[in-house]
Design brief:
heterodimer, A: 290 residues, mainly alpha, MetI-like fold, two-stranded antiparallel ribbon, 15 helices, globular, B: MetI-like fold, 65% helix
């Protein structure tokens, strides 16, 4: 299309461009500054001019981060930096794999199968989305402690059975739009319900499910709240780094801490860079239409 | 949410269910598809219920019983005896002139207002990217960083960046715009504004992908027609774009308003609620997790939930009122 932009239009776009540049700088500069600071010596950071470049680029701070960023967890023990990374990996691994399967198969039954009560399920899920309930954290902690699913692997397992939210709505719309004829054919060939789901429906849903999995990974990797509340003995990379900082009020080696922070962002950046296309195009399916 | 969102489930082509069941269903949900051509597959109920068994158990424990237990907690003291004292404590904290809940309420309102003010900004940002402002591909990537990089990372950068010895005040001192570097996050007068500032900073491009995705679905000819008519940028946004992407906007608005009492910023990471920066949701967290108090927060939670009910009703009513443009 070759519509010529009017003059005023171009002025507006120019102003917006200038503002965008300014905003991009405010996003990037603090990050670059933190990275540069992570290469300084501890004393140099504390006493020197914060705008100066590092005198010597101490990449050794990154090795030190793995050694010295040890956090006292609330279970009484300590967790090393590797431990925090591992906690982030296994917790997210379990909840993404199981959570994706559970939400796929439950949403599929509501969208495609017929059974009494499914509309009630749908209505309940919508109701839960529409009605915010505050202050249930106390009750939730109490119940989890009573059931023994507090501060252990079962907490992660149990939470994967929470179905609902916008993910449900999008998957629901997706399964609705998938043609039923392959499933029909599979049924005629004698496939069971699970086989139809697993061999016919699930492969077709891989694209949106993969996007959700990536979203969940990013959200889980960055989540510092829920590990802090429900898994206090298992600090993740996000909750652990926060706890480390609040424990070390004095005598903290800031550059090494910054190095830890930078390391924590690297997996996200790698995923983002390698999957930028998928991200930018398919995440937009979150754009709700009607 | 649109008014007929759950009526959209009219896909019942396995509908060879018993007549009585249909009637029972129709009594609850008036619109039921009566397509009975396809025969019922064996074991479909069994399979569906097997799939739902654990989610249902989860729902019964962690939704139904959990909320029931919440109510119980609110009416009990630490020794499990019935009391109304928890509600009294909450109300005292609101009525007192420097009560913590009153401060939390004020701050929650500030964060909520900020999120509303950011919405038009979000739309303009997305629209400029959609209109392919120069360098839009680069900006899209950079503007997406706040949504994918974690709060701990951003807030560590922010906190140290605005520290008296940090780059921001070093630059301002060098330019002689100020004579003394203030400690913004450790001062009752400024801390809340510094926390709000961090939300503003990272919130400028939020919902970008949702709006871009919605804009991308608008047929090209609609947009081109508007451009040929020579409408200016702002009129195009106000009169053409906003109505076209209204479903996305109203959904965002709806969830912002419904979640009013949950509005909060990075309070934990920046100030841990000190210097009058607490919000309602931070206060709840602080009471339960840090102070191990279960009863008063539960009472507070009930009051918040009840207070938000009118918001939910009004929102639903409003979103049913506004007509959506189909294209």
């Amino acid at each position: 299309m070759a519509v010529r932009k009017s003059k005023s239009q171009r002025i507006v776009m120019g102003v917006i461009f200038a503002l965008f540049v300014l905003y991009a700088v405010t996003l990037l500069y603090p990050m670059i500054w933190m990275f540069l600071s992570s290469l300084k010596g501890s004393l140099e950071y504390e006493t020197g001019n914060s705008l100066d470049l590092p005198k010597r680029w101490l990449f050794s701070n990154y090795g030190l981060a793995f050694e010295s960023l040890v956090v006292r967890n609330k279970g009484g023990g300590t967790t090393s930096f590797f431990g925090m990374v591992w906690n982030s990996v296994w917790m997210n691994g379990i909840s993404i794999v199981l959570g994706t399967l559970v939400s796929a198969i439950t949403t599929y039954t509501i969208a495609k199968l017929q059974f009494p009560g499914k509309k009630v399920f749908y209505a309940v899920i919508l109701f839960m989305m529409m009605l915010p309930i505050y202050g249930s954290m106390a009750s939730s902690l109490q119940i989890k402690k009573q059931l023994g699913v507090f501060d252990n692997v079962f907490n992660v397992l149990v939470s994967t059975f929470a179905v609902g939210g916008y993910k449900f709505l999008i998957l629901y719309a997706f399964f609705k739009s998938v043609s039923w004829s392959y499933a029909e054919a599979a049924y005629i060939d004698g496939a069971s319900h699970f086989q139809v789901f697993w061999n016919v429906m699930f492969p077709q849903a891989l694209a949106p499910l993969a996007v959700f999995a990536i979203q969940d990974f990013i959200a889980g990797w960055n989540d510092y709240m829920s590990p802090l509340i429900y898994m206090p003995s298992y600090p993740t990379i996000a909750s652990g780094l926060y706890q480390y900082e609040s424990q070390m009020i004095r005598g903290m080696n800031y550059p090494v801490y910054f190095a830890g922070i930078v390391i924590s962002a690297i997996p996200i950046l790698i995923i983002f860079i390698s999957m930028r296309k998928t991200f930018m195009t398919s995440l937009s399916m979150g754009g709700l239409k009607g | 949410m649109k008014k007929d969102s759950y009526n959209a489930t009219n896909l019942g082509f396995w509908g060879n269910l018993k007549q009585s069941l249909y009637e029972a269903k129709r009594r609850i949900f008036p619109r039921v598809n009566k397509n009975k051509n396809v025969s019922m597959k064996k074991g479909m109920w069994l399979f569906s219920y097997a799939v739902w068994a654990l989610p249902i158990v989860y729902f019964l424990i962690f939704y139904v019983y959990l909320n029931f237990n919440s109510v119980m907690l609110a009416f009990k003291d630490v020794n499990n005896n019935f009391t109304l004292e928890n509600f009294n404590t909450v109300i005292q904290e609101i009525v007192k002139s420097d009560g913590e809940i009153l401060i939390a309420l004020r701050n929650t309102l500030l964060f909520f207002t900020l999120s509303l003010l950011l919405m038009p900004v979000n739309i303009v940002v997305s629209y400029a990217l959609y209109k392919q402002v120069w360098g839009y591909k680069f900006f899209e990537v950079i503007f997406y960083l706040p949504s994918i990089i974690g709060g701990v990372v951003w807030m560590t950068a922010y906190k140290n960046f605005i520290h008296p010895n940090g780059p921001l005040f070093t630059i301002l001192l060098d330019l002689q715009l100020i004579t003394e570097a203030p400690e913004l996050l450790a001062n009752t007068d400024t801390a809340i504004w510094a926390v709000l500032m961090s939300s503003l900073w990272l919130g400028i491009p939020s919902s970008m992908l949702v709006y871009l995705g919605t804009l991308a679905r608008i047929p090209q000819d609609v947009m081109e027609a508007a451009e040929l008519d020579g409408v200016g940028f702002w009129r195009e946004i106000a009169n053409i774009t906003v109505p076209l992407i209204w479903p996305a906007i109203s959904t965002n608005l709806l969830f912002a308003v419904i979640g009013f009492f949950g509005a909060s910023g990075n309070v934990l990471l920046l100030t841990e609620g000190r210097y009058n920066t607490t919000t309602l949701s931070y206060w709840l967290y602080d009471q339960v997790v840090v102070n191990d108090r279960y009863n008063v927060p539960s009472a507070m939670g009930i009051l918040m939930t009840i207070a938000s009910l009118p918001l939910v009703v009004i929102c639903r009513w409003l979103s049913n009122k506004v007509e959506t443009i189909e294209f």
